[in-house]
Write a structure and sequence with these properties.
Elements: E1 2-5, H1 20-32, H2 40-46, H3 52-61, E2 64-67, H4 80-93, E3 102-107, E4 121-126, E5 129-134, E6 140-145, E7 152-157
Antiparallel strand pairs: 1-2, 3-6, 4-5, 4-7
Helix pairs in contact: 1-3
Length: 159
């Protein structure tokens, strides 16, 4: 709640003004509970005699109005589309981190000479589903793993 002089009412705030009789009752209740009412001190400073009776008269005449709290609420409906667009553009520019697929890596070496086997083809079997692959130049093979548990077997092809 806020008391405001009629000259200082902003456009649109007149929709949120309490009727004078209701405003007086609300101010009396707030004063009895020692609640702060914004603008009441300013009203009292402008009066020649600082008595409650003269405060009520100013409100009854309509010189001062009690504004509902809703008058301070901001209407976002004009900005919702722009805000949504900005959130989407921010997500496009900085996408969330994507989960990396699980990969089984192995190094293929000759059992007798311990040399790396490079460029060799192998067949990877994941729960019976076979896939032909090739070992890279470093002698490392890669097998993508699904998220569930699977049985993996590998077999080198040719020499």
């Amino acid at each position: 709640m806020r008391l405001i002089h009629r000259r200082k009412l902003k456009i649109g705030e007149d929709k949120y003004v309490y009727p004078p009789a209701e405003a007086i009752v609300l101010i009396k209740r707030a004063s009895a509970r020692y609640q702060r009412i914004e603008g009441l001190a300013e009203l009292r400073r402008e009066l020649m005699i600082n008595l409650d009776h003269f405060v009520w008269q100013e409100i009854e005449r309509g010189e001062w109005s009690l504004i509902k709290p809703e008058a301070r609420y901001f209407d976002w409906k004009h900005f919702e589309g722009e805000a949504r667009h900005r959130r989407v553009m921010a997500a496009v520019e900085n996408p969330p981190p994507q989960p990396k697929p699980l990969v089984l890596m192995f190094r293929a070496t000759d059992s007798e000479t311990a040399e790396r086997m490079t460029g060799r083809k192998y067949i990877a079997s994941l729960d019976g589903a076979e896939e032909s692959r090739k070992i890279d130049d470093q002698g490392i093979g890669h097998v993508p793993l699904p998220s569930k548990r699977v049985k993996v077997s590998m077999c080198l092809v040719g020499s």
